[in-house]
Amino acid sequence: MADSNRRRLAAIGAMALAAVALSGCLQDPDASGGGGSGTAGFADNSSTDGDNKVTILGAYGGDEKANFEKALAPFEKESGIDIEYTEDTDFTTTIKTRVAAGDAPDIGFFPQPGGLLELAAQGDIQPIDTFLDIGTLDKTLVPGLLDSVRLSGDPSGDDGVEGAGRMYGAPMRLANKSLIWYPKKAFEAAGYQVPKTLDQLYALMDQIKQTGITPWCMAWNADQATGWVGTDWIEQFVLTLNGPDVYNEWTSHAIPFNDPQIVSAFDEFGKIAKTDGEVYGGAQTVVNTQVAESMVPAFKNPPQCMFERQGSFEISFLPADIQADLDNEVGVFPFPGKEESAEAPAILGGADLAALFNGNDPDAIKVMQFLTSDKFGAEWAQAGGWLSPHKTFDASNYPNQTTKDIADAATNASAVVFDGSDVMPKEVGSGTFWTGMVDWIQGQSSQDTTAAIEASWPK
Amino acid sequence: MTAGTGNTVDVEGAAPGEPLPPEDETLNGGAGPSADPDAANPTKILVGLVGMVVVGWFVANASLSFAYYPEWFANSKILIGLVALAVGVGGAYFFFYFLNMLVEGLPGRLSRGLMPYAFLAPGYGLIALMLLYPAIQTINYSFANADATEYVGLDNYREVLGSDAFQSAILNNILWLIIVPAVTVLFGVIVAVLADKLSTTGEKASKSIIFLPMAISFVGASTIWLLVYQFDPANEDATGLLNAIWRGLGGDPQSWLQHSGVRLNSILMMVILIWLQVGFAMILLSSAIKGVPEDTLEAARIDGASELQIFFRVVIPQIKGTIITVFITVVILVLKVFDIVYVLTDGRDKTQVIANLFFAKLFRDSQSGQASAIVVILLIAVTPVLIYQVRHFRKEELGR
User: Fold this and answer.
1) B57, A11: Cβ pair inside 8 Å?
2) pTM for this one?
3) Which CATH number fits domain A179-346+418-456: 3.40.190.10, 3.40.50.720, 3.40.50.300, 1.10.274.10?
4) Nearest CA in chain A to B64
5) What are the φ and ψ backbone dihedral angles of B336, each rounded to 5 degrees?
6) Are B255 and A284 a contacting pair at CB < 8 A?
């Protein structure tokens, strides 16, 4: 009796367990990945595909975020796709953490191709040729930008980099960093002329100094990113003194970081940054003032400083009352070339690169196609502080003459080179180059600084 | 497997009716409640086992369904959250209910011996999964290259130990270790003693105020103090509190966080941690001081001891245990200090500490091997403190 009871129980238990084991666990309904469709969609994240929701992670905050969302609104309405934008000022770190944790957003905006290519090499990013028309992009984009998002290396062989030779991001915002800004009213009242060469610029600096005004405004503090402004300066001097070829050799490490040509660029910049009376407040103020506040003293009466070398995004840093009357308050001219020439000098550029982490989501692909087209950005352009990377972008959208001038300078330049610290490996480009600049402006020699950065270059 | 166990039970249960049989041989049979409480109860074992599997299966699939089929829950995150809460708590309840049933079904002695472990096992399992496994993996990776694809022997340790950044970080960590715990305990004791002398309301109010910073996150506190240390050039208004005072006294504006001469910048950052932790020290020490028996104080007074003598010779020895506990807790906190340095200087101007260096290596430089090596060194540094703490705690317990 007891035995048969136990047998029955055992049988029931066995059946129940077998049922559980056989029915197993739920399966991911869209775990299919690329499947049969060739290489499409080999990058995937954990978000649901095709649910009319697209998540974007970027570094834009404050006004930039508001303007970006304004530029998205018509598209969202038309397509029915809900775009969820998350800002993170520590984007470069956050994106790596989230990708490593399998929690990548659908789309990320990389301020630097270095970080993008690093993740692309790990197979986390969808190559753009699977969903964008590269031929068309190449025709409408400012020259030089697309080359920066190509993953280098040899795709064949056992040690081959998988996906090498393909492109992984598309620019959705252009920055022209070879610009010098000045308070227009004070500049014109003094009767200064826009300098065409470096020597003219130096002469003008002396002239300004004699009136008791410090020639340069400068501010480098950006919390964990402190020093990036300094790297832009060095890049500018390397480009201006040695031209785009040497510049590209330097950023790709074909010549060492402490090559004499680079050291001399540091020394040339030292004539400004490390010379008493050339920079407002001296090194201490430079390192302690937030980047966005650099030109505040320029709009005092009388101005405390006259020039700021900064990218096109400087507009959004300017005080509100200045922004309101931009064309009358602010002047801008391209960073002068070494010698006078008919051609416009090469410019230091930069672009925010949109990268797709979810190659399986048709909605995310639609958003990517929109963001990287010349149709995107009219609202943001009108709000200011944004340049389209497309030559075909309707320039009448730019709100003022200042912005049009900046856009013109970018599209006419004889060459556009990508911001070097963005191209260099991350441990240099957003690591030792930044910290090295801070050490340098606080007194370390050009030789020691460049040698230390060279030593930190990954082997 | 269960079925197998059941059968085995059946076959082996060959010696019924033995009065006090050794556990592994006895299986008294009988599905219902047996007269012998030490006998195994196969029904309970079976139901318990099946119940555990079913509950586990149900909870796992419910969790998966949140991710895969949000439409089942009307795409509502709130609903998913509530269901998850119910499934989680309910699942845990039923899982332990069946686990309990299973263990109860085992023969008496085995059951009693196993019961505490059965209830601890899930907890141990989680610790192993979340703490032990990552720790071992980190040690493993510390011998591997930057993306953990190849072993490189001791290269990471050589690289890390030889780098200036690490040596500077070690020096700073040692400074933090020397200064912060001692000062925190000192202030904690002073505040606790002084507050003890106040009226009840005064004591409550002053303790609350000193405890308040404990409620602020490290990053929040660092941001507040960043404003305190703010630098503005001499021709502009001082917006930083410290510079405002300094200039009020006739000094030139200083960029405090760049003064690495006597590691002033590091010391200024230690102030933040002390500010945050004194409240914690005070609360523990205050209750310890209140626990000092009044008669020992009386006796000392009768013997003609001064208040200071009473404090150092009578009170302090009696609260020594608490002082050590607070000290060690702060020591461990200091070894891990990260947020403050990350927010204020990110290691510039010789303020680097181990934890921040680790973060930079891992996330900025993508050097997971070296980053792991740094953490392993940190782990080795913390271990003796932990062992001491555990020993000390045991001694305290024994003393009670």
Assistant:
1) no
2) 0.74
3) 3.40.190.10
4) A26
5) -95, 0
6) yes
